[in-house]
# Entry
Amino acid sequence: MYYAKSIKGGAETVTVNLAGSSPALEVYIAEYSGADSTAPLDASSQAAGSSSAVSSGALTTTTANDVLVAFCAGDTSCDAGAGFAARSTFHNNLLEDATIGAPGSYAATATAGAGWAMVAAAFRPQTGGTVPPPTPVAAVAVTPTSSRVALAFPAALAVTLTDANGNVLTGRAITWSSSNPAIATVSTTGVVTGVGLGAATITATCDGVAGSASVTVPSNAILGPLHVSPANPRYFADATGRAVLLAGSHTWTNFQDAGPSDPPAPFDFQAYVNFLISHHHNFTELWRWEQVKFNTETSQIYFYGQTPYQRTGPGTALDGKPKFDLRQFDATYFDRMRQRVIELGQNGIYVSIMLFDGWSISNKGGLNNAWPGHPYNKANNVNGIDGDTNGDNLGEETQTLLDSAVTVMQDSYVRHVIDAVNDLDNVMYEVSNESTGGSAEVAWEQHIITLVKQYEATKPKQHPVGMTALFPNGNDADLFASTADFISPAAPGNIDDVPAATGAKVIIHDTDHICGSCGGSGPWVWKSFTRGVSPALMDVYDGKYAVLSNPDPNNPVFEETRVNMGSVLAYASRLNLAAMPPHGELASTGYCLANPSAQGGEYLVYLPSGGSVTVDLRSSSGTLTLEWFDPTTRTVVSGGTTTGGAQRTFTAPAGSAVLYIH
# Structure
């Protein structure tokens, strides 16, 4: 940094003499009035570094009201520090200044994306002189100019002030306002929160100059049956074509009552719906237990309410009650199913209806055998149906195609389910929960998938049908090879490793099939989201249902997972998911959804351990807005803006973080 004192007024020419040759040269010039004409330089300092926080190092002034001028040259960019006005940001370098107070120790500050060097100089005012007035604000730009904000969740806007020459100004007071606080409120720092459905205009004002941006708070209403998104087949799409991420909790007794008493205590379904709503979930699974007695995961006798078949007799089943007539359906069962699906749909929640259950036909839990309580046990029905063709006191043959008479009964049940809910938009079907596996069982699941698709083809609406993990003889390759619309694989078998979805299937990453009742974790939710899969939690809920792992309903990991599923859905509602496949290669953390387009580029990056992340923005151009989200506190802060066209390094404010660049 060079300076000249007592220069004449009017046009000036600055000549730079180089000691050697150079392929390029940049010169930044600022002229100040009111400086001491005899000894203007009071103090100086300089420093270099690579962290995001830039400082010139301390300098000590001897005169009050010095003007502190600093120049920062950065490998990628330099942005003015708090209290400093940017006089030039040409080529992402920075010339800034600020008026300082009483004599003392000061330093110029800024932020940078990578390596930097800064030089600062403090100039004395002339005796009786005045410090330069602030440069007038010529324009206020609020970015992004148009965005979506989730109901009850925050989103950060960024504001850029510039002078008449386009130089960025900082350290100015900004006033924020909303045109409709009933739709969206805005804080003093530009954080917008959706409070009602609709649109609002957010305005930032500085020194009488205003800029604005529009925000929309969208509805979570179900808009037609889901179908696999043709633009991004990792997700479903609704009738509008918008890609839909699914995330939510499910629990074992949310359809049929179950417990150690006969009849079992009623499940409070309304409280469960309110629970899902309060956590902002949009997905659940409606569990089905085929048996009426016995739970393989406890030695305690368990009873199950609600069955699809009437118990007409004659004769007594193994539970001491009348035998089932498998040709007479109980309408109250299907009415209950329909009503629950309707209520969930009215609250924006999609429902995967479980058609069959692999834990209802065997003793795979090891503590009891569910087969004696199954309607297809020959001792329990009046139709002569025997699902245990090999006589081993297990009904695993029912989930094969070995006995056509059994298959006929199952097909009839599936059609009856479809008849009950086909007109509803929020329906999905799951063939069976953790059936045993093997080629015969896989063929049966494919038969049910085909049946659902063919029968619904004759109906007004068509819904997705899924195949979930097989246990204990499962192979996820069978799921991918099926014609199912969605799958829930068992691999990788732990929640710390989430493979990126390829788009071969819509994947619902369900803790039930990965780690049982482990409860998931917040990081698992974000890893799933940024790898293009939908997270689902096997939720212990109230802890009343007996399972082998005996999970603690008060374990905070369950609530951590629930809350974070709501958070990812909030971001999913803001993103153009149809254009955002996983792009782990674009972020140094490996967790990134991205639409790396030249215009309208959009990136969502997860930093599991916080710290710094390098994001490749070379495919995007122009100004991009930065937003930091803290998954633990669910708070957002603006990160200002950056520009595309290069690899940029960003540092999280604190702890694990999510960076939204758009």
